[in-house]
Write a structure and sequence with these properties.
Elements (H helix, E strand, L loop, with lengths): L2 H60 L6 H14 L30 H14 L3 H10 L6 H13 L4 H13 L1 H4 L4 H16 L18 E6 L6 H14 L4 E6 L4 H14 L3 E2 L8 H14 L4 E6 L7 H14 L5 E9 L5 H13 L3 E5 L9 H9 L3 E5 L7 E3 L2 H8 L2
Parallel strand pairs: 1-4, 1-5, 2-3, 2-4, 5-6, 6-7
Antiparallel strand pairs: 7-8
Helix pairs in contact: 3-15, 4-5, 5-6, 6-8, 8-15, 9-10, 11-12, 12-13, 13-14
Length: about 425
């Protein structure tokens, strides 16, 4: 082997050994430094703890607790008694103040009927009402063509006025010289208002039977309708309306199929202090609940009994028959004065079939139109009255507890023509 190679190998080995030795010495030195630092820190901590302990013991020895005022007075009294001194008179205790009674929960005060009508008129006038606006825009043209009159009829049909009523209204408008002559906006509006009022029924008696002179007491109202029309909510709002007229109301939760229906009705009752008769178990016979509610209303001499029933499809014969049973069982206690059909105004002509079947099953005395905002479906007021031969008595225009009011034909027509 070459001499240079051997020298190189030896040099590498020597360097490696030197590095290892240096590293080992450095590691030992670092470990010794760490151990020393730990020992010094521990010594300082022990010294500080000992110093704090000594200071605490010294403070405890110097501190002498002062006797309380009560203890000092007791000791003085004991000394006086031992010395024969007369006992000091006791200071009379101040009389205890009676506990402040917890205030009763405040009940919501319902809005009056007159105030509701005024507010609902404003809602109608401020709402989007393409029905009235579209008619007015067409009729105020200078010269109405045959196509314009077709547009008028189409607008009425789209507003759910109904085919027969739409045709009748168009014929009357065409004969009115105020429209077919010079199209003065004021005259057109006046003519259109008169014609719509005639269709809506300006002289129809829309009072609830419970509000009429000589009404039975209690006056029984049964609420009916399909699922999703807002029937239970309407029942609660109707109770508030009667409470605003200072009538004593009781509600019966005969919707025993929907678990939350009775709870929902009780929530409404709690707001205006109206008791609710309900079953303790789900799926109970709704007719028995109605009978019990009628018995209680009779015993307590209530002014009005409102019976909420389960929503049902008009094509289910057994469910429709059950409505008849509810009425028959209730009338064993009290006569039924009113059956109100709750219709969702947004369903339009689809609600007509429902309405006719309910009318045949239980007999309807009036209609409540929920969700009537005066817009595209405003004509449902006209068509439902013509289909059933009964008036629209109440309308709802919002989700608020007082957004249910007696239907006012003139206010309604003014609103959709605003």
């Amino acid at each position: 082997m070459d001499t240079n190679v051997m020298i190189g190998i030896v040099a590498v080995v020597v360097i490696a050994v030197v590095l290892i030795v240096i590293g080992s010495l450095f590691d030992r030195s670092r470990k010794r430094a760490l151990v020393k630092a730990e020992e010094e820190a521990k010594a300082r901590a022990d010294a500080r703890i000992a110093q704090e302990r000594a200071a605490a013991q010294a403070g405890a020895a110097e501190e002498v607790p002062a006797p309380s005022a009560a203890a000092a007075e007791a000791a003085k009294a004991e000394a006086d008694k031992a010395a024969g001194a007369p006992e000091a008179p006791k200071t009379p205790e101040a009389p205890k103040q009676p506990a402040t009674p917890t205030p009763a929960p405040t009940r919501e005060k319902p809005e009056s009927s007159a105030s509701r009508i005024t507010r609902l008129k404003a809602k109608l006038a401020n709402s989007s009402n393409p029905f009235g606006k579209a008619l007015f825009n067409i009729l105020t043209k200078d010269n109405l063509t045959e196509a314009d009159w077709e547009d008028v009829e189409d607008t009425l049909l789209l507003a759910d006025v109904g085919a027969e009523a739409s045709e009748r209204l168009v014929e009357e408008l065409r004969k009115d010289a105020r429209i077919t002559g010079k199209a003065d906006p004021a005259e057109v509006r006046a003519s259109l208002k008169e014609k719509l009022l005639d269709l809506v029924g300006r002289d129809t008696d829309r009072r609830l039977n419970a509000s009429k002179e000589g009404a039975g007491k209690p006056s029984v109202i049964i609420m009916v309708g399909v699922n999703g029309t807002g029937k239970t909510t309407t029942a609660g709002k109707l109770a508030r309306l009667f409470v605003s007229e200072d009538k004593r109301v009781i509600m019966g939760a005969a919707d025993t199929f929907r678990a939350a229906a009775a709870d929902q009705l009780e929530t409404w009752g709690a707001k205006v202090n109206v008791p609710v008769v309900r079953s303790d178990k789900g799926g109970a016979d709704p007719a028995s609940v109605a009978f019990e509610a009628a018995s209680r209303a009779k015993e307590e001499n209530a002014d009005v009994l409102i019976i909420d029933t389960a929503g049902r499809l008009q094509n289910k014969a057994n469910l429709m028959d059950e409505l008849g049973k509810i009425r028959r069982v209730t009338e064993k206690n009290l006569p039924v004065d009113e059956v109100l059909l709750v219709l969702d105004a947004t369903t339009g002509q689809n609600g007509m079939t429902q309405a006719k079947v309910f009318a045949e099953a239980i007999g309807i005395t009036g209609v409540v139109l929920s969700k009537l905002d005066g817009s595209a479906k405003g004509g449902i007021v006209i068509s439902v009255q013509q289909a059933l031969g009964v008036p629209v008595k109440l309308v709802g225009l919002g989700e608020g507890p007082d957004d249910l009011a007696p239907f006012d034909p003139e206010g309604f027509v003014d609103g959709i023509l605003a």
